[in-house]
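Subject: for your reference before the review

Hello V.,

The reviewers asked for a structural picture of the protein, and I figured it would be easier to keep everything in one thread rather than splitting it across files. Below is the amino acid sequence we used in the manuscript, unchanged from the supplementary table.
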Amino acid sequence: MPTVLSDPSPTFYIILGVVVIVLAAIWVRTPKRGNLVQFAAGVGVLLLVFVVDTLVESPREEAVRRMKEMARATRERQAETFARHVSESFASGGVTKTGLRDLLSALEHGTVSQVGGFTWKGGEVWSFDRADYQQVDDATLKIGFVGQASGLPQTLQFCVATFRKEGAEWHMIGIVFHDPIQRTGAPAKTLSELVPFSPPPSPPEPEKRPLP
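And here is what came back from the structure prediction:
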């Protein structure tokens, strides 16, 4: 589905609206059949774009939706819901999908001391501007947005998440963080650099005793 139909910009809607208004004015001023047909065609195109935009989710819209659902999952402490939106190949610095699960669990249980000992209440994301969207190729895209830990403005970051199409769905394969003022003009930090975290070591295996 062409992006111009599935994800039209507000500017595109404005242009179509202006065209329809002009065609309507021409028909009112000169009520000929040809002018009426042109006006009806303009209205039809506007309605078609609106219906497709409403019913068909573009890659950008899907990535934004998934990012918002991931943030909501952190606030509701639904780790499995969060993980469904993350690719098995996810990596941000040294953090993999498994490490991301461990980090989320550590934040939920207050065991990450490096971030200041605050009470983790989940994450918040907003400001998904079209200007911060990049279609890298047919199977890869990036979205930029603002995010922070809920209720903690001092944790504010400008984030860039990378999504890859896997089958029929888009999953997050990476994320980096920038200064919220300079945005991409500032150096990027990976997740492991932003929140230094090492998962706790696995408990030792029980000692095997020889059978009597």
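For the response letter, the relevant points are probably these. The mean pLDDT is 87. The helical segments are 3-6, 10-29, 33-55, 59-75, 79-83, 97-108, 191-194.

Happy to draft the paragraph if you're swamped.

O.
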